[in-house]
Amino acid sequence: MERGVAHVRLDDAPHGLRSLAQWLRSESELRGRVRLTEHSIEPGDMGGALDAVAIALGSGGAATIFVRSLFTWLSQRQVGTSVRIQLKRPDGTETTLDLAAVHDPDAVVDKVLNFLATDE
């Protein structure tokens, strides 16, 4: 059962987004849940630009695996990569986590799980 979707946005898109999507797809728990999203095409645009990596999060351990895998991927990147996670529940409720100054994956896992568990 899908509990929500996480959209990860990076300051070094599109290369970083492609790399992150490939990394997350290597996690067996996340296979089939990861996709790249694009900005909508505006008049005069040649095509859409990559916007985010979207991850469908269920009631199982996918959220925990997603956050831990994201932090592992970040640890292999150059320092200073700006990351924002936009979480959205099926009811449309949203929140955004800015990971610029966060170094504790457990704190982020707790925030994600608490947000997904809230039924309002």
Write up this protein:
This protein has 120 residues and is α+β, with helices and mostly antiparallel strands. It has one domain: Alpha-Beta Plaits (2-Layer Sandwich), CATH 3.30.70. 32% of the residues lie in helices and 28% in strands. The protein contains three helices and five strands, in the order E-H-E-E-H-E-E-H. The chain has helices spanning 15-25, 62-75, 105-117, and strands at residues 2-10, 34-38, 50-58, 83-88, 94-98. A five-stranded antiparallel sheet has the order 2-3-1-4-5, covered by helices on one side. The chain is globular and about 40 Å long. The two termini are 17 Å apart.
> In total, how many beta strands?
5
Specify the biggest β-sheet. 5 strands, antiparallel
Shape: globular
What structural category arises from helix and sheet content?
alpha+beta
**Order of helical and strand elements:** EHEEHEEH
- Annotated CATH topology: Alpha-Beta Plaits
Provide the low-confidence segments as ranges: none
* Order of neighbouring strands in the sheet with most strands: 2-3-1-4-5
Distance between the amino and carboxyl termini: 17 Å
Number of helices: 3
Task: Please identify the top-level CATH class.
Answer: Alpha Beta
Mean pLDDT: 85
Helix proportion: 25-40%
How many domains? 1
**CATH architectural name:** 2-Layer Sandwich
Give me the Rg, rounded: 14 Å
Tell me the β content. Answer: 25-35%
